[in-house]
Design the sequence.
């Protein structure tokens, strides 16, 4: 059984929390004591039924205001798959939280209120999905019960969204008409929309193939830690511990160590007491090389036949996440996997109006702004373009005055 | 299944090992908080997988309330001996003796909330900059919102409104002097995942997790182990029942469940069928809807 992380984009008004609550409720994932707490809560739907949205509101301020402020993670499983839901807030002022929740997701559910169709917020959410390179998109057209389960309404919204999806180059888009409140097409197939031939949302989530195939050939492993027991028995033991970001490493593969550029071959692979011949993306491993070369935390082991980019000047998309605006006069820290280096912003190339998708010239860059910048790093970075290999194409910026994570970066081009 | 599609337990394990190695790489003086419960026992196993044949780059730290199940302490000492790693114990009794905390009185008195002071003192005494803990997001709704690297201020406080965005698998462990980070490598595991992992890895557990006969009393619908640490009066009726514990904390706040499950397979099927969450057996969470959020803001794990 494997694991699927997905995130939901939409606001409380679109019924996002209700949709998640419905998924949990109808898959029997809510336990009796949690249900009891729910029933004791003062918040109820107009018809007196339990307000499923409360399930995802974790913080007191969120319950008081009836909104989602931060990303909440929810867990459930069926016989076919395990799921992690990143429940992210939909409002524009929480764009950074949505980017956070989306960064580890393989699939996005975009909620549209059937009464309102594609609105500004839909464009914004879909843009973020495309920016973060999420391959699979489910457009859940919700509140179908409020539009008499109308096929015409569903098709009109679908057509409109397809134009947007094309513009944003979204690849796999699936449309499902649902009512989270009534439970139509969430877990159980709806009896109210016999015109809809597709599967329920849960069926789709259980069966969609989300494997990332495009980075198979890009073997990358940042070194996190060097294992050196330095005991008499293991005097020469030197293992490079890390998590394979992408691709595979096999015994006797030729690898290059970056940034130094030294080469060697893989002598032994360990996962604790196992000695596999081959390891793949996602596994935490320890590699041993034939040659004794100087390697430390922050270096990257890569497949010698498919080298990454190596540069100090990078064009990158950025989502600004801090209340202090971007400052071109100061030096930030850039963290790219286990590598940390100093960085300056050389140029703001443009800012995107995320409601209209227009690119604009910009003199400043504030909280939740998204656009493209040119960044200069003190050390060379061994990276891939985000479109080729998400796992090795992203980084964060840290403000060394506050130590806060102030920006998400997605590398788009080598600038020199 | 494709070889690139990891099984969920392998994926959760790999993620946790990655997080543990990030702690080793980013911090000067980390520590692993060991409670003797199944979650921290799982963390120890993951640390072995992350760092062997090398030593752990951190000691184990136990905050001892003094109201322990003796089985847990015996387990702890045997485990530390087998591992050959360092154990540091912070005693709540010392905090009481120093007058830093006052023992609760009354029927529901527990030392659970007093732990926070001892924990913060232990962190300060040893200068720990990162504390690894076994909390999981599925346990409780405030925990569902907490980051894997959770920055605490000098007073150990969690500020849910000022959490750092945590993007991709990149963890920002930069802190100012005096601050520290709580790190939760098994954030994304569920209770059932932990049990399935313990089974797969054949990990030994303290015996109280398995069904055994014990003297218990019923309080607020919960079965509490009869012990010198529980304030009892004439109204309390001691019964001998077949029970086991789902979580292991202080004796005065951890409730037992009636169970015949004495094998790990039985426990897994019992949990799969169970309709009560694990923290449902924790009196400390029953105080209010925001009990955990408030304790975390005060410096709790």
Sequence:
């Amino acid at each position: 059984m494997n694991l699927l992380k997905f995130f939901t984009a939409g606001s409380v008004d679109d019924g996002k929390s209700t949709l998640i609550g419905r998924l949990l409720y109808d898959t029997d994932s809510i336990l009796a004591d949690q249900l009891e707490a729910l029933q004791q809560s003062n918040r109820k739907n107009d018809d007196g039924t339990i307000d499923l949205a409360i399930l995802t509101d974790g913080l007191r301020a969120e319950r008081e205001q009836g909104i989602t402020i931060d990303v909440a993670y929810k867990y459930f499983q069926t016989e076919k798959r395990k799921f992690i839901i990143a429940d992210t807030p939909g409002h524009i002022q929480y764009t950074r939280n949505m980017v956070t929740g989306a960064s580890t997701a393989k699939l996005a559910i975009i909620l549209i209120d059937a009464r309102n169709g594609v609105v500004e917020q839909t464009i914004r959410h879909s843009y973020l999905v495309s920016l973060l390179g999420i391959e699979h998109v489910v457009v859940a057209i919700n509140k179908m019960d409020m539009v008499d389960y109308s096929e015409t309404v569903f098709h009109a919204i679908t057509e409109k969204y397809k134009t947007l999806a094309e513009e944003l180059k979204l690849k796999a888009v699936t449309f499902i008409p649902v009512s989270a409140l009534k439970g139509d097409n969430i877990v159980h197939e709806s009896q109210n929309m016999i015109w809809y031939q597709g599967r329920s949302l849960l069926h789709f989530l259980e069966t969609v193939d989300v494997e990332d195939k495009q980075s198979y050939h890009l073997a990358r492993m940042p070194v996190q830690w060097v294992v050196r027991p330095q005991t008499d028995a293991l005097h020469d033991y030197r293992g490079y511990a890390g998590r394979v970001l992408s691709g595979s490493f096999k015994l006797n593969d030729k690898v290059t160590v970056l940034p130094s550029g030294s080469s060697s071959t893989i002598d032994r692979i360990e996962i604790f007491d196992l000695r596999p011949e081959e390891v793949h993306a996602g596994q935490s491993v320890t590699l041993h090389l034939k040659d004794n070369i100087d390697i430390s935390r922050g270096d990257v082991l890569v497949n010698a036949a498919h080298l990454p980019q190596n540069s100090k000047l990078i064009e990158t998309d950025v989502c600004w996440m801090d209340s202090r605006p971007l400052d071109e006069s100061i030096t930030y820290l850039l963290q790219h996997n286990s590598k940390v280096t100093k960085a300056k912003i050389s140029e703001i190339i443009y800012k995107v109006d995320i409601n209209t998708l227009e690119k604009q010239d910009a003199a400043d860059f504030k909280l939740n702004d998204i656009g493209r910048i040119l960044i200069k790093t003190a050390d060379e970075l061994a990276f891939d373009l985000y479109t080729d290999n998400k796992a090795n194409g992203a980084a964060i910026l840290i403000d060394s005055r506050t130590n806060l994570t102030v920006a998400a970066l997605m590398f788009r081009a080598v600038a020199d | 299944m494709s070889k690139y599609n990891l099984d969920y337990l392998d994926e959760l394990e790999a993620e946790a090992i990655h997080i543990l190695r990030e702690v080793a790489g980013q911090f000067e003086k980390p520590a692993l908080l060991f409670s003797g419960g199944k979650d921290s026992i799982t963390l120890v196993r993951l640390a072995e997988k992350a760092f062997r044949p090398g030593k752990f780059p951190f000691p184990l730290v136990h905050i001892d309330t003094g109201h322990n199940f003796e089985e847990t302490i015996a387990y702890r000492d045997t485990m530390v001996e087998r591992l050959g790693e360092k154990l540091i114990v912070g005693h709540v009794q010392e905090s009481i003796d120093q007058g830093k905390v006052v023992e609760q009185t009354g029927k529901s008195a527990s030392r659970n909330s007093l732990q926070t002071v001892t924990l913060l003192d232990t962190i300060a005494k040893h200068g720990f900059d990162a504390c690894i803990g076994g909390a999981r997001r599925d346990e409780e709704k405030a925990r569902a919102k907490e980051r894997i690297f959770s920055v605490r201020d000098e007073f150990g406080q969690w500020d849910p409104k000022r959490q750092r965005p945590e993007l991709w698998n990149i963890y920002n462990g930069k802190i100012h002097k005096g601050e520290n980070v709580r790190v939760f490598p098994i954030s994304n595991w569920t209770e059932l995942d932990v049990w399935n992992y313990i089974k797969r890895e054949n990990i030994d557990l303290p015996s109280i997790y398995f069904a055994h006969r014990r003297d218990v009393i019923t309080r607020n619908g919960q079965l509490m182990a009869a012990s010198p640490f529980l304030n009892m009066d004439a109204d309390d009726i001691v019964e001998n029942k077949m029970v086991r514990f789902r979580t292991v904390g202080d004796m005065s706040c951890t409730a037992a469940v009636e169970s015949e499950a004495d094998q790990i397979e039985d426990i897994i099927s019992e949990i799969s069928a169970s309709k009560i969450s694990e923290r449902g057996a924790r009196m400390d969470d029953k105080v209010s809807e925001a009990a955990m959020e408030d304790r975390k803001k005060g410096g709790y794990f």
Summary: The first strand of chain A starts at residue 2 and ends at 9. Residues 139 and 175 of chain A are 5 Å apart (CA to CA). The longest helix of chain A spans residues 151-167.
